[in-house]
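ok so I'm stuck.
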Amino acid sequence: MSEVKSRMVVPPAGVMLDMSCRCCGGHRVELVIDLGDQPHCNRLVRPELEPGVEPHYPLRLGFCRDCSMVQIDHTIPKESMFSDYPYVSGTTKTLPAHFLATSQRIAARYDVKPGDLVVDIGSNDGTWLKQWAFSGARVLGVEAAGNVAKLAQDAGVPTWNRFFNAACCADIRKEFGPARIITAAGVFFHLEELHSVVDGIAQLLAEDGVFVVQAIYLGGMVENTAFDQIYHEHLCYYTLKSLSALLERHGLEVFSAELVDIHGGSIEAHVARKGARPVQDSVRAMQAQEIAKGFGEIETYRTFADNVLDLRKRLVALLEGYKNSKKSVWAYGAPAKGATLLNSFGIGPDLVQKAVEKNPMKVGLAIPGVRIPIEAEEGARPDAYLVLAWNFINEFLVKERDYLAGGGELVVPIPKVHAYGKESA
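replied:
not stuck anymore, here's the structure
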């Protein structure tokens, strides 16, 4: 067995969390899965730091029986998590291409003209806003992390280094006027000031403006057993039903919805002032699908928790098989969700000796909790890689064709444990 202990517990039915729902304020939030006390996944540590020194916080997932919002109960202050941040959007080819295609689709659909204002929430290094250059629109990013905001500013992307909330939106509107388009990708589940943010969006939108939000889809998480998307930065996990329940509290409504193939499956919702645009069939179709699949029922999430237990058993058995065969295994990348998987399953350096990264902000540090060291992606290769950023596996299979042809393996843990080898080269 691994030398690092698993932290995960699946509780009996009916255990309630001591919290108010982040969406509706109700007090009937039932515990679904307890991943134990874990460190902040993106607070990488120095390898020489004493074991266990980094702060650990409860990581528990709950389901609101009143509004169906799935959420974690413990909040690490946003200033601690986001003021300095090691993630940048532009490190893969997949995201810039995705953002360009999305921008072109939005611009055509809503007739975005030169001079229209596009505001991106949690704009990171400006990767998405760069893709609006073709349109002639004015762009503004709002990014809380000073280090990545500077990357965007240095690249010529207008960026405010602030937390996006109602006060920030009032300042944007005063200086730039109303926004024709507001976007949020991979950030809407991060929001500690959830209602202030949505209120700000309602204030900032032009009368005919559209808010386009892409967020990891809870339905896809359930179907793929993608529990590693659960971490302290991700406070809420959305279905169309729970997202709509939040937006409607602020006079907004989803008028178009679809699933997009990014980050393992995301919902893309187009939002306007209530009644401003006709609600399309895509919304009614997704609502019906969510009912049919039980995404508004607690039993669905209890099954999800049981599936996570089975996933742990299968992945740990595979890694121990490599260990017993004297084969080396390294992590391919050190994404935030990888820390959740490794800490929850008790996978430490005895099973995965190191992680390799192309992001220089991570090199020389270690994944918190399990303390797997992170090195630069260069030089020697292991017998197998554990691909923690499994959502980019198609890109990696192309990139690593020669490695696979030479006998190497890429192991993905999700949606099911699978080792890609020579047959994938």
